Amino acid sequence: MLGTTLAALHADPPVGLSDALAVVDGFDDVLAQGFARIGEPEAATLTAFADAFAGTPLAGAVAEAAGKAGTGSGTAEHLAVLAGARSALLGAAHDALLGQLDAALARDRTAGPQEDPVEASGLGAAAAARAWLHEVALVGWAGVDSELLTAADTPVEAALAVPQWRRLAVLLDGFAAELRACVPVSTMPQVPVRRWADLWARGMLLTQGSVPTRTTMRVSGRLLPLGVEVHEHDTAVQILLHAILEPTDGTAPRVVRTAVGAAKTDTVVGPAVWKLFGAHPVLLSVLAQRRSVTVTDLPEQGGDVSWIDDQVEVGEPADPFATARVLLAAATTSAAAALDRHPAVIAEPVLLEGYTVGSDDDGVHLDLGGQRIGVAVDRLPACGPLTLELVTASTACLGLARWDDGGWSVQPLAVRATVRKRAVEAHNGDWADGITDPKAAKAEAKAGDVVAVLRARAGRLLRR
Amino acid sequence: MVTDAERAGGQRRSVVRVVPPARARKLAKVPFVELAEGRLQGVVSSGSSAERVYVSWFTAETHAFHCSTNNNRPCGGLSGRPCKHLVALADEAILQYGVDRIARYLRIDIGDGAESGFDLLRRANCRHEPGPGAVVFARFLRHLAYLEVPGSDGILPELHWFPATAGVR
User: Fold this and answer.
1) Which chain A residues are closer than 8 Å to B93 by Cβ?
2) pLDDT digit string (tens) for A203-237?
3) pLDDT beyond 60 at A375
4) H helix or E strand, kind and range, residue A29
5) Best of A265, A304, A306, A413 to disrupt the B interface by mutation (most B CBs within 10 Å)?
6) CB burial string A388-417: b at 16+ within 10 A, e below
7) Burial level of A65, CB count in 10 A (0-12/13-18/19+)?
8) CA distance to A224, A236, A267, B33, per residue, from A432 (Å)
9) Quick check: B3 pLDDT over 70?
10) What is the pLDDT of residues B18-37, one digit of tens each?
11) Band of residue B1 on the pLDDT scale cut at 50, 70, 90
């Protein structure tokens, strides 16, 4: 990523972006208030929301849903239509922003594979989740209480029991836990209305009966890791690897992603999360030793590769910075699945070098020839060695371009830095096979092996 | 129009850490602590028997407390005041969540702060009120059951809303 790339990103925001987001904000404010508490201003906001879809294929359905909801008689189906319409706006925002980024990076993006609706099974879980989300939408954020949050347990358990509904389960559980920690919401100084509306709307969409499913291809080749990001809430953690695939069929190198996930408890935090991935020893070694992987016949859907331990083999050492420098600029990438499109899922690997690091009231930023990009320092995971100090001392950064609330930032995956005149390098996955930093290892040892303690308890109590 | 105040509070952000992650703590003595169902509740290991655990809770607002074994046998240490299990529960809850979050949830006015579980509980006008402990024990089993849920393969896109964070170290 160069100064000129950033200049192109900062020059003009995509046409219509702020208008679309203003429409989204209107909806989010109504949802925050609660659909059972619709007054005249809220009804007017919903009418304006529906007007934004005039002339589109959604116009009729949105107008009807907004009309019913505006008179306080919206059913769960009407709210699902409104959730879908909101998601369509943010999907368009995603496309516009990513288009701008691709143009600035000269990155070539191919259309994703075809998506066909597949009828889902175990619909009881989805129906229960939808009923809960409907109830939440009626009372608004301030109306959510302990009782309603306890009622989320049933749909969460039902969804967790069916692998097909894992996305819904993980979303609902994280969302409900966050709300639980914020009750009573009325005492919060600021309510994260965009975020909670995002989670609510995504939940509504995931509970619809048929799931758009992308055609699966098979890929073989050499996978060269760029870096991992870690996602986690109280009861779920995901290790998402961004890499470049050199296919054996001789086609051009591509940017791909692969992920493994685990359920956990809120007491498993920091480097302890790696212990949940014992079933993926190859992945852990590859990350810790910074190696390439030979993959054979792995299922792939539009750049999302499924990780199957039996079909991957640890390869030669591979420096992610070298991979990025040599291959990233020319690698192609693929479009996201239709339902997934949202500015929050934009995560494009980028390499930044030759910058200076600065900080001011807006936080830490990198300066490339007078052009700045903020650093998402709140996205440095506790399970890895990256710290604010290392980022501040860095001379090169491998990261993900992210967009939120009107601006681009970079989420570091790895940095090269000079600390006390010594060159050091740190990657998010460095501690996958055990903590390599003595000080952090000592702190971790003090807490003991929480995963082992909990598993021992579970073994004693759950199988009586 | 997004105001500066809205921006600062993350009102129009999709990804903002609303609740700090739980802090690492040893789990041997108090394997389970939660703020749920209007209570600070959890499970405390018995000092004398590996087989026995105590189920303890402290209710928000009313500040009613109770402690019993998982078979609903009342804790012998209760004498109108919180027993050592309840104090241990509060101590570990402070480690896990921070004292401010607990005080806010329980509606205890801690003034300029509370150092320990004992310090926190003595600021509440608490009283003993028996109740069934089985509910809390069931929550503990549900909590443990997460470790038995099989892992997922394939990307969970919704987790983009939940990046891991250390805060700023």
Assistant:
1) none
2) 999 999 777 788 899 999 999 999 999 999 999 99
3) yes
4) helix A17-33
5) A265
6) bebbebbebbbbbbbbbbeebbbbbbbbbb
7) buried
8) 17, 17, 18, 27
9) no
10) 888 888 899 999 999 999 88
11) very low
Q: Is the pLDDT of residue A251 over 60?
A: yes
In tens, the pLDDT along A146-201 reads 899 999 999 999 999 998 899 999 999 999 999 999 988 998 889 999 999 999 99
Which candidate from A405, A453, A462 shows the least CB-CB separation from B141?
A462
The 3-state DSSP class for residue A142 equals helix
Q: Do the beta carbons of residue A339 and residue A205 sit within 8 Å? A: yes
Residues in chain B: 169
User: How would DSSP label each residue in chain B?
Assistant: ---HHHHHHTTT-SS---SPPPPP---SS--EEEEETTEEEEEEE-SS-TT-EEEEEEETTT-EEEEEETTSPBPTT-SSS--HHHHHHHHHHHHHH-HHHHHHHHT---TT---SHHHHHHTS--EE----SHHHHHHHHHHHHGGGSPPEES--GGGGGSB------
Residues of chain A contacting residue B150, judged by C-beta atoms under 8 Å apart: 163
- Contact (CB, 8 A) for B19 and B165: no
- Residues contacting A147, CB < 8 A, separation 6+: none
Provide the shortest C-alpha distance from residue A319 to chain B (in Å). 24
Nearest to A307 among B105, B153, B162 (CB): B153
Check CB contact under 8 Å for B104 and A237: no
Contact status, residue A256 vs residue A245, Cβ threshold 8 Å: yes
In B, which residues are within 8 Å of A404 by CB distance? 13-15
For residue B159, give the amino acid letter: L
Whole-number mean pLDDT of chain A? 94
| CA neighbor of B54 nearest in space, from B75, B34, B36 | B75
Query: What ipTM describes this predicted complex?
Result: 0.97
Helix extents (H) in A112-259: 123-139, 146-150, 153-160, 166-182, 193-206
Residues of chain B found within 8 Å of residue A344, distances taken between Cβ atoms: 14-15, 160-161
Whether residue B8 is predicted with pLDDT greater than 70 in this model: the reply is no
Average per-residue pLDDT for chain B: 89
Cβ neighbourhood burial of B48 (10 Å; 0-12, 13-18, 19+): exposed
- Per DSSP bridges, beta strands A108-110 and A332-334 are parallel
| Mean pLDDT within B41-62 | 90
Examine the pLDDT at A391 and tell me if it is beyond 50: yes
On whether the pTM is more than 0.90, the answer is yes
- Residue B58 backbone dihedrals phi, psi, to 5 degrees: -140, 120
